[in-house]
Queue: 4 jobs
Job 1
Amino acid sequence: MVTSSLQSSLKYAYFPGCVAQGACRELYQSTGAIAEALGIELLELKKASCCGSGTFKEDSQLLEDTVNARNIALAEELNLPLLTHCSTCQGVIGHVDERLKHAQEENREYLQQVNGLLKQEGCSPYQGSTAVKHLLWVLVSDYGLDAIQKRVSRSLKGLKCAAFYGCYLLRGQEMAWENPHNPQSMENLFEAVGASPVYYRGRTQCCGWPISSYATTESFKMAGGHLQEAIASGADCLVTPCPLCHLNLDSRQPEVARVVEQPLGLPVLHLPQLVGLALGLSPQELGLERHVVSTEPVLEKLGLMNNEQLTINN
C-alpha cells in the first residue's frame, strides 16, 4: 500500500466540473463530505469554466487549449494543484496541461498565442507550474492507502465492488498514471476500506456515454453489457470515478435494461460515496438517496437499513 506523511497539509484548487453541480449533485456533496472527514482542504475554483468534455477540439484545438489553460491558470494563481473528481475532466484538462508543457519546450509560438488570448480577456497566463490530479489519485498517492485504512470506522466487509474506471482516466493523457490495460488503483482502494474488488472485462472500457446522443441504442447496449458482466461476476455495486459514466450506468439504467431486455438493478456509486461509507458518514451526507437505481441493497448489505436514522428512500 502507498503511504503518505502529507495528510495533515493537503490542499487543492478544486475543479468540480459541470455534471457534479447539476445532474450528479451527490458527487459534489460526497466529495466535500470525505474531504472534510479526511482533513483535505478544497478551495473551489468558482470562476472555472466547463472543460468541454472533449467536444471543443472538434471545432478548434486552440479553443480547448485556451479554455483549459485558463482553468489551470486559476489553480496556478493559488499555487496549488488542480483537483477534479471527474475522469473526463481529468483527461481533457490533464491532456491540455501536457500539451502546453510540451509547447513550452517545442512550440513557444503556440503557447504565446494561447496566453495572448487569455490576456485579451484579462486572465492570468498559463505557466505550467502545477499539476492536474483526479480525486482517486489524491486518495491513493497523496493521502495514502494505509492512512485511509486507519480512518475506516465502518466495516464494508462482504461488500463486492466492481470498478468502472472510464476512458479518460486511463487513456486521456500521454503519460498514464497507471497501467491503462490493467489498472489496480480502485481495487486497491476498495481493499483499503474493507470491501472486496470484483474483476470483470468491461471495467476498463467505454460506458457508451460519448455516443449516446446520436447512437443511443448502441450506447445503451455497451452500458448494458458492462452491467450484465458485473452482475454475473457477483458485484453488489459498481463504483465509478466519472459522473458521465454514472449518468449512463445509473441514471439511464432503466432505459438500458429495456434495450438489453434483461433486468439489471445494479447500484452505481460515485467513488467518494464508497469511501464516505467506510469513514462512517451517513447515506444522507453522501447523497445516496439521489440515485435512479436504488442504493438500498448496498445499505442492507452493510446493515444500515436496520438503523432508522440511516434509512433512506430512493
Note: Residues 29 and 286 are 6 Å apart (CA to CA).
Job 2
Amino acid sequence: MAFEPNNDDLFDSIIMADDRFHVEGYQEGFDEGVRQGTIEGRNHGRLHGAKLSAEVSFYYGFALAWKCLLQSSTDVKARKRLKAMESLIGVIQNFPYEDPQYEKLQEDMERVRAKFRQVCSLLNVSTDFREYLSGSTSMSF
C-alpha cells in the first residue's frame, strides 16, 4: 500500500495543474506588462519632455533676442517691455529642469506661457509661431 500516496500525489498534481498554470501564466503576463509599461512610459516621458524643452527654449531665445534689441532704446515703452522681458527670462531660468518628478510642472509651464503672451502683447507681436517652428516659411533677402 505504499504505492497509494504516490497515486494521490499524482492525482493532486494533475488536478492542481490548472491552478498552477493559471497562476504562473498570470505572473508571467503581469511581469511582461510591467516591463512593457515601463518602456512605453519612458518613451512617452522622453517625447513630452523634448516637446516642453523645445517650447521653453524657443521662449528663452525669443526673450534674449528682444532683450538685446530693447536694451539700446531709451523709450519709456521700451523700458516697460524690457522689464517684462527680464521677468520672462527669470521665470524660464528658475524652471526646474533637473527634477523629472516636479509636481508643479504644468502650473509653471502655464506661468511661462502666460508671461510669453504678455510680452508678445506688449511688443504687438503675434503669439502664433507654428509656421516658423515648422520651417515651412521661406526667407528671402
Note: The chain has one domain: 11-136.
Job 3
Amino acid sequence: MCEIEEDTIAVGMYVIIKKLNFKKIYKVTANGSLMLGKDLVEMSAIIGKRFWSTFEMIPTKEGKRAYSLKEVLEAESLNDLLNELPSGSDNRTIIDDGTSQKLSKEEILQLQESGKTGKEIVGSLIENNKSFLDRTEYSQEKYLKKKEQKYLRYLTVCRPNISSLHDVYFKLDLNKIGGLRMDSLAQLLSYSDVQSDGLHILYDSGSQGLPAAAMLNRIGSNTNGHLINLHPGNVPQAMLVNAMNFPKEQTDRLVNVNIYSFLRLYYQGENAVWNNISNKDHSNWINKVKESKRKKEEEDLIEKPQTEEISSNVVINESEKVLNDEVNEEQKTDSGLKRKFDGGNESSDSTPAKKPRWLLDTQRAVELVQGSKARGLTIVCKEHPLNIVTALLPFLGASRPFVIYHAYREPLQEVYVALKQTQNVINLRLFSNFLRSYQILPDRTHPDILTNDTGGYLLTGYLVEQ
C-alpha cells in the first residue's frame, strides 16, 4: 500500500515535466498551471496518477495557447514515417528558397484547429513538401525532429532524482549551481566519503541545495547519519532538497545552520549570539529612525521655510528630543527582551520567551559536533575558501577526508599552498575533470559540439593528528 502511495502524484509534491528533450520542475497544486514556452497547460489532471504517466495536450476554448491534459498509454512517434518513405543520396540539388512547402501558414493553422493529431499534421506537411523525398535519411530525420517539437504535444511526468534535477538546472543556467557538473558532483560525494552513518558537514554558498540533496540522498532515512548544512545567509538555498520529495524521517537528518551563528554559539555561548543579533537589530532601527527624522525635517523645511533662525533651532531641538525618547524606549524594550530570552524575570508576571527556530537548529548542530567529530567535510563555495576551511577543519575527525569545490583554480591554489604549510593535512590533490559526451548513431559517431569544457576544480585531502 505504501509503495502505491509513493508512486502516486499528490498535491505538494515536486515532479519533472518532460516534453521531448525539454524538462521543467513543477510543484503540484490543486488547480495549478504551467507555462511551457508560450503554452499554458492546466496540470490538475496529473493529481492521483502514477509517476511516468504520459499525457496529451488538448487545446481548450479559453485561448489559442491554452491546453488541458488527457492521459494516454503512449506518445505518438514519427519514426515509422521514415521507414515508409524513400530518401535521396545527397542534398546538393536542394535549394532552400522557402518555396518547398505548398501549404500556407493559414492552412497549417486550420489543420491544428480542426483537431487533427500531430502525426497527421506532419504527414500533411511531408506530402506537400517538394524537396522532402530528395533529402538524405539524416536530413529527413532532422526535419522530423524539428516538426516533432512543434506539433507533437505529449508530456511525461517523471519522478525527480539527483541526475534529472541536475540536468534541468545545468541546461537552464549552470551558474545557478555554481557550474557543478555531474561528474564533479559524483567525485565530490566519493571523496567526502558520504555514507549512511556518522556526521557530515557541508558548506554551500549558492548551489540551489544540489550538494545537500545529493548527500542527504546517500545518507537515507532509516540511518544514524546527520548532515549539517552551513550557509552564509539567513535562509539556506533548499530548492533541490525540497524537489527530491524526501520523507520527514530523511529531512530530519538535515540541519540547516548559518555558519556565523554556528561558530559564535560554539565558541562564545548563547549570550554572545543573542547580543550580536540584538545589537545589530538595535543599530539598524536607530539608523532607520534617524534617516526618517532627517527626511521629515528636510520636507518640513522645504514646505515651510523658516524666516527666523530661532524657529529652525526649535524644530531641530524638538526632533532630537523626540528621537532620544524613542531610542531610550527601544533600549528598554531590548533589555526586557534580552532578560526574557536569558530566562530572567523583569517582573513577577514575565515568562521566558520562546527561542527562535534558527537558534534551536544552531544548538542542535553544536550538540552534534560536540558529540562526535565529522566523518567528512565538503565545501562548495563561490567566495575564497581559505577562511572557511580554516574555521571548519577543527570539526573534522582524524584520518577523515575533506573536499573543496570551486569554479576557478586560483583560489584553490592559494588554499593548497596554505594547507601544505600545516602539519595536520596530508595527501593534498588539486585537479580538474574534462568530460565530453559523444553522439553514438549509425555512421555518425562524433563528440557533442555544444558542450561545457570545464566542471570546476576539486581540492581533496585528509586531516591527521599532529
Note: The CA atoms of residues 342 and 355 lie 10 Å apart.
Job 4
Amino acid sequence: MRNQSVLISGASIAGPALAYWLNHYGFHVTVVERAPAPRPGGQAVDFKGAAHRTVLERMGVWTEIHEHRTGTTDTVFVDEAGERVGFMSGDFTGGDVEILRGDLAEILYKRTLGECEYLFGDSISALTETAGGVHVRFERGAPRTFDLVFGADGIHSRVRRLAFGPESEFVEDLGHYYCVAGASPWSTEHTGPRERATAYAFNAPGRLAVSGGPKAQQLYMFAAPELDYDRNDSAAQRRIIEQTYAGLGWEVPRMLAELTEFDDFYLDSLSQVRMRGYTKGRIALVGDSAYGNTLGGFGTGLAVVGAYVLAGELALADGEHTAAFARYDEIMRRYAKIASNSHAGKFLAPRTARGIKLRNWFLGSRMFALMSKFGDNAANDIDLRNYPELTTR
C-alpha cells in the first residue's frame, strides 16, 4: 500500500475517528493535539439516523456510546416572570443518542491508543509539500515527514490555514456568538440511563440565556458584529457575557453571578466553513475544519461519517491519494449540505420582540414538526459503502 505514514492534527472527534479507520486499513497513524491530554467533559453532542449509527456500529462503539448517553433534555422557553411561552422537545435537539463530547472523545481515543501514536501538547507550525510527502514542523517536537496530512482541528483549523489559505477566505461569521459555561449536569459519574430532564430558556431581543441545559449548566447566545477578542483570555470573554446580559431579568442575574465559579467556559462565534473542496495535494480536511457549521445540528455525525469515507476511499485506492481524495470530495460535498442552511442564531436568539413571538409560535406549529422530519431524512442522505467488507475481499 502507498502513502502509509499519516499525520492527523486534532484529537477531539474527527481525529480519533479517522485514526481508527486508517489504522484498521494498515496505515501508520500519528495524531498531534495541542492540548496536554484528552479534553474531558464539554458540551453534549448527538447522533441521528441510520447512517450515523451504521458507522458507529462498524467501529464497534455504538453500545459504549449508548451506555454513556446523557438522556433527553426538553427546553421550555419562559418570559421574564418565568411563565412558559414556548417548548422545544429534546427529541429534536438531542438526536437518537446524546453524549458529552469529552466522553465520546475518550471512547474513540481508547480505541486507537494502543496502535496509534499520540503527540499531546504540540501542534503543527509549518507544512511543506514535496513530490514524495509533506514535511511538517512542530511547535515543540522535531520536524518529520509524512506521506499524507489530515486536518481534523476544528473550525479554526491551523492545517486549513497553512495549506489552503487564511481563515477569512473559508469561514463566514453568521452574526451571532454563543457561550457554554459550567460542566454539563450529566458530567457526574455515570450510573446508567438518565431520566428526561428540562432546561429553561429566556429571550430578550438578540439574546438567549439557558439554564440547566444538556450542553452545559449555562448557555448564552447573542447577536453581535464580529468581535475582536483573545480566544485564550477567558476573563475578557466573561466580561463580554456580563456586559451583553447586564440588566436583564428572569434568572440572568443569578447566572451571571455564578460565571466566576465555572472552570469550563467557552465563547466563540457561530460560523460556517464554506469550501469547494476539502483536499489539496497530499493534505485533506475532515470534520469541522472542512464542513463546520456551529450548532448546525449535524457536526459530530458529519465528522464520523467523513472520517469513515475518507479512510475507506484511501483503502479502496490502495493508498493512492489523488483518486481517493477526489472521491472523498465528491461524496462529502453532497452530504455536507445537510449543515449548510442552519440558522441557529436567528432561530434561538431573534433580534426583535416580534421575532421571538413568531419563533415561539413556530415551535408549536405543524411546520416545526415537518422541519424536524426533514432533519431526520437529511442525516441519512448518503449511500454508505461497506468499506471494511470491500477492502477485505
Note: The mean pLDDT is 89.
